[in-house]
């Protein structure tokens, strides 16, 4: 049942992506509304599947890399759906929906690998750790999409060479401020996620820092975002550099999330 | 026969310093038109002064004498010492060339920004002044009216006019793509030219929060600031404004760039890297193109803006050629009218008119009286002929006598009106009230927006 729901959810995201890609070329509000609704339906099926899985196992379904990605994809889509209501930036869907599909597909294609035994996921600390990090990453993924939009639009204006996207993309300042708030709200969540992670590690392994590859990569990612937030707030960094840094940050997240679990060892990869 | 002469200087011939000096002088209370009664050789006079152009349009019996007198008027009026050489800045056009030049000016083809709409209004003001001072009579009255209708024709039949509007519209659109909402933004105008004014109007309509004007002559800056409820800043301190301003519209006549790479670069940190948008509508450019390389700084010059507008270069060139063709056509029409103002063609057409009437009336009479013998018919013909000849004798002698005078154009024009001799391409009644034109500008802006 749950895998059927997941397939339906993936198909919904795929349809929404097609709708939004068409929307890139044709400015039809109807198209956006339909795509957004399809995505919402997908998120409902997706959510239902996750609830079922949680009920079956009795813990949050994040113990394997697949489950974690699947869960993250859901958090990402929900974050987008909510933010879209607030931002009313329709074109954002064209950049976000493909990401959702990529997350869903990779969650089913990546090899199944147990990261942590599921009994660990009954701890409140760990739920906090995973929850806040997922939301932080979802916000950073949005900042990444917006960063790409910014760079595209900036290129149009700076090079004075106007492609078809120039008309469709919003103003630079709007994109920059969206990225700004995504990073600004994601950063405390990420910090909280890391702190709860250290606290949990201190309880389980009696040491908050174990030179685990994922820990090191997480710290690097955190430093990237810390630099970004600091420069934005203190120096007034914005625009192109900030966009590049948020793209770099998101690359670090992907590496931490997927790469470290698959390629490198450590207690996040179940080899304990 | 009277000469039409146009003497003046514009952004194409004179440096900005000279023009500014002229512009200041020309805004003095005294209009040079009041000098006309003291000029022996100049018959009619129109004086046009804008920030990019000072022109005297006059008619005179002797070209050399007229030019000499107007030059001295220019000198005394501006207060230039005779040591400053003026001739190198001046252009002088005679007769058809003067007519063509005036038409070009009126249709905004000679403007710094081709197609900017304000010049026509300024020309109308100049004409109104001349009417007030009673310095225009038949020829210039006719010529100015004609120039208004030519400008109108150029504007309706080509899109030269909408180009200028769309340049400043494109600037505003770009600003919206950079800043989004412009309501919280501030604009700095460097140089207070006509195009700057047009761009300023667009930005005001977008509701910008603050506007600052910097100009070499404070008087003009204050004038513009008054119109837009803006502040003024002294010309050597405008660089300081770069720390807070968001949009800069630059249109000075400076030969060298006035804003260099370092000027902007060094101020970016202080403005916390907030985006800065330069609109450089000056030719030559006011802003070093290298400034565009700075992060969060965007520089658009007039060519870039024109590139933004969908019209490609060929199309614009095509439109300009079309406009010039219209002007050539109208110049020839005007020449025909000018030629008709001498005595011989006037007398000929008076005679022709009388003869046509006579023929028509004879035909009617003969058809009503079919019994008339050939002799009787001949007698009636001779009778009518001599009536007309006797009746026209005095007017024709009068016209021939007046043909020797300078003011013959007045009498010829009067005669033509008296006998209703003007054919269709002669009469035209372009309105000189600017309200109608302004309303038209508004609609033009609206269509450009769509």
Low-confidence region ranges of chain B? 424-450
Mean of residue pLDDT of chain A?
86
Oligomeric state of the chains?
heterodimer
Number of strands of chain A: 0
How many domains make up the 3D coordinates of chain B?
3
Order of helices and strands of chain A: HHHHHHHHH
Instruction: Give the largest chain-chain interface (CB within 8 Å).
Output: A-B, 18 and 20 residues
- At the fold tier of CATH, the topology name of the largest domain in chain B is Beta Polymerase, domain 2
Low-confidence stretches of chain A: none
Would you write up a description of this structure?
The complex is a heterodimer of chains A (272) and B (450). Chain A is an all-alpha fold and 272 residues long. Chain A has 2 domains: 1-112; 123-272, no CATH class. Chain A has 9 helices and no strands. Chain A has helices spanning 2-25, 29-57, 65-87, 92-109, 124-159, 164-168, 172-204, 213-235, 239-263. Chain A is globular and about 60 Å long. The two termini of chain A are 33 Å apart. The model of chain A has no long low-confidence stretch (mean pLDDT 86). Chain B has 450 residues and is α/β, with parallel strands linked by helices. Chain B folds into 3 domains: 3-159 and 316-340, Glutamyl-tRNA reductase, N-terminal domain (Beta Polymerase, domain 2, 2-Layer Sandwich), CATH 3.30.460; 162-308, Rossmann fold (3-Layer(aba) Sandwich), CATH 3.40.50; 343-402, no CATH class. Chain B is built from 16 helices and 10 strands. Chain B has helices spanning 16-26, 63-78, 96-106, 118-132, 138-157, 160-179, 194-205, 218-228, 238-241, 261-268, 302-308, 313-340, 343-368, 374-402, 408-418, 434-449, and strands at 3-10, 42-50, 53-60, 91-94, 186-190, 210-215, 231-234, 247-250, 276-280, 297-301. Chain B has a 6-stranded parallel β-sheet with strand order 7-6-5-8-9-10. A 4-stranded antiparallel β-sheet of chain B has the order 2-3-1-4. Chain B is elongated. Mean pLDDT of chain B is 81; it is low at 424-450. The chains are: A mainly alpha (272), B alpha/beta (450).
